[in-house]
Amino acid sequence: MGWEALAYWGKDVTRVEPLAGGSSNDVWSVLIDGRLAVARLGNRSDADLAWEAELLQYLDRNGLTVPAPIPTMDNRLFVGGLVVMNYMEGGPPQTASDWRRVANTLRELHRLTAGWPQRPGWKSSTDLLHADKGTRIDLAAMPSEAVIRCRAAWKRLEGRETCAVHGNPNNPGNIRMNADRVALIDWDEAHVDVPDLDLVLPHNAAGLQGVAQDSAAQASAAWEAAVCWKDDYAVKRLAEVRAV
User: Which intervals hold domain Aminoglycoside phosphotransferase (predicted)?
Assistant: First the structure.
């Protein structure tokens, strides 16, 4: 349907300017009744969008600052791959203290979503000990030695409790914060996994120590290598995963 679906949010909705939104989406700021919002057009399935919308609504109701979806005039949360969300004011974290606030926000996300169901089509890091594919990950496309290394890193997380994870919180562009609150935006990589994957942050802001820090760092590097394979960033991240 494309951008004409904006009409479902009102006849006077207008696009303002494009925003950074990753390679898989077209993201614009929009005006709805004079209020600034964000519209994202992509090709995710209805089941995938419904999972994301339910998660964001739940987090919004429970006090986290997230880009909750704005319903259409007939109360739909997405139409033809188009989602309209609240605009999040603020800037990226800049100091160690800022990143500690991010870590605290992530831990609240993890607490609130313990036992959350998996995003349709996704696999967790520990699921990939036995599965080869999950959404953007295809282990069959990686060299067998790389798969062995990644699985060895994820094996160290096996048996841990799972929850919803943001998936890419160490990117400053995915945080909007001010003196009063921390907002997590861009939930494209959110899924259910071991919370440690969210806690590998600049300045070791989550305060991980010893084995816990090493396990999280190795598992995170393996995850990003698998998700991005085979661009230069993926190769760089794989180099951080120790050989078995």
Answer: 16-203
